[in-house]
Amino acid sequence: MREAARLYYLEDETMEAVARRMGQSRSTVSRMLKAARDTGIVRIQVRDADTTSGIAQDIMERFAIRAHVVRVQEPLGDAERLDRVARFAAMTLPDWFHDGMTLGVAWGTTVSGIIAHLANHPLESATVVQLNGSVSPSTTGLAFGAEQMSAIARSFNAKLMPFPVPAFFDFPRTREMMWQERSVRQVLDSQARADVALFGVGSIHSPMPSHVYASGYLDEADRRALATHAVVGDVCTVFMRADGSWRDIAINMRASGPTPLELRRIPCRIAVVAAPAKATALLAALRAKTITELILDSGTAQSLLRQADRGMSPALKHRGLG
Question: Are residues 219 and 253 in contact, defined by beta-carbon separation less than 8 angstroms?
Fold first, then answer.
């Protein structure tokens, strides 16, 4: 496969010429090239995202992060928008995750979309660790989180470290005691050593609801509490207000995911967002400094900047601050 790929893609030989040189039929060479793409030996990329466009530069200057803006033609449905952005995220994830690294992943609808496009990129001595628990009161939730983690680990030939705890504990004290268990400490230590984090941004008001809001993880009392605290969304199941504050929101004491402070210890933090309606939640995540690399579509990028401009003074707008 490597020899066929080298001749065809690097030396610009025709498929017939490759077949003659290798003593194979044209159809055999065609199958070799497909297998080389499927296994990750060959990566074909059409860069439909831009880090140098005006809108990407605006986001970078305002929030001190790098933005990868996937160009889309509006109007666009939510499912297709997510598919476009998730495809680009799947294509570029190997640019950050390399041999010997640990990748922390927070399960969710966006990560499911990324997995659907993730090709095989075998690494050596790599680890995939789950960042937040997925057990819920209505279902075990283990399948949802574990299947996502397993799929990503298989794609990179990485060691898997699942996190089989509730997404939200019933009592803060229960969480504190669970965090003292040796098996749980191993996972937490692996999270703390992560080189890269991959996550979406949950939004309470998005027309395509995040899994945590739509699948029985929150009861009515939880929802009332979130409204009382003016919560707009979450990162890794830790809830935030529009200004990025999170410390005094009671349910976060029961959440299993890393806080923004803990998340900031991971050097590379990749957020993938594909919904203009998530602009408020995304702005909160940026204000909490949870993101270093942002992958989003052009429509969501425009909504983010409009949201950031609201309430700013003319002087601040002129200076490009938010």
Answer: no
Mapped onto helix, strand or coil, the DSSP state of residue 119 is coil
Q: Residue 270: how many CA atoms within 13 Å on its side-chain side? A: 25
Among 169, 2, 165, 198, residue whose Cα is nearest residue 92: 198
Residue with token string 């927070």:
106
Residue 211 phi/psi, 5-degree rounding, is -60, -35
| Cα atoms found within 13 Å of the Cα of residue 203, Cβ hemisphere only | 21
Cα distances (Å, whole numbers) of residue 129 to 153, 270, 272? 9, 15, 18
Q: What is the reported pTM?
A: 0.81
How far apart, in whole angstroms, are the C-alpha atoms of residue 87 and residue 187? 29
- The pLDDT profile of the chain, 322 residues, written as one tens digit per residue, is 989 988 888 887 888 899 999 999 988 998 998 888 888 788 766 555 565 578 999 999 999 999 999 998 888 888 899 999 999 999 999 999 999 999 999 999 899 999 999 988 999 999 999 999 988 766 655 567 888 999 999 999 999 999 999 999 999 999 999 999 999 999 999 999 999 999 999 998 776 667 777 667 888 999 999 999 999 999 999 999 999 999 999 999 999 999 999 999 999 999 999 999 999 999 999 999 999 999 999 999 999 999 999 855 444 343 343 3
Please name which of 247, 244, 214, 220 lies closest in space to residue 232, comparing C-alpha atoms: 244
What does the block give as tokens for 270? Answer: 């990749």
d(CA 84, CA 80): 6
Residue 219: both structure tokens together: 């009861």
CB 187 within 8 A of CB 94: no
Q: At what angle do helices 298-309 and 54-63 cross, to 10 degrees?
A: 50
∠ at Cα 31 (25, 37), nearest 5°? 140
For the chain, how big is the Rg over CA atoms in Å?
21
